[in-house]
Amino acid sequence: MNNDPRTTTIKTIQVLAPADRKPSPTLVIPEPVPVIPVAATPAPPIISDQAFHQLLLQLLEGKKPAEELMKYLCNQQETVVIINDKETTSFLQCCAQLQHKKNIRLISLSLARSKQGCIEALRIRYDKKKFIGLF
Asked: Does residue 122 contact residue 91 with C-beta atoms inside 8 Å?
């Protein structure tokens, strides 16, 4: 060794005791999860505008239950109904409001359909029948 400070380099090395080595975890490949086919939600049946109009008239007269018309609606009870272009309610509220009223005449019914063909919204226009008195 040369004691010349220009060329002498001192290095410190720290020696550690051997560590307890844990075996490296083995790679566990999980079994593939079986894909269970999800049953597609059945599309509501499609009805023509005229047939729905007839069912609605029968509903208003009390001859048909509301459930018979709800199967054609996308959102069942919560389908939007616009009454006389002034009031917006749900289908169930509309049925309760108009059912069994004898002095109502349905002027028009417009249906908004989804791509699947079910009814998303209804627009109902009606007026009250006027009675002509002979007395």
From this structure: yes
pLDDT on residue 78:
80
d(CA 10, CA 57): 103
The SS3 call for residue 104 is strand
Tokens at residue 19, please? 């560590």
Backbone φ, ψ for residue 70 (5° rounding): -65, -25
CA distance 40 to 50: 29
Q: What are phi and psi of 85, to 5 degrees?
A: 55, 20
In this prediction, residue 6 carries a pLDDT of 73
pLDDT in tens, 88-101: 888 888 888 877 67
For residue 88, what are its two tokens?
Answer: 């917006």
Q: Tell which phi-psi region holds residue 117, choosing left (phi > 0), alpha (psi between -120 and 50) or beta.
A: left
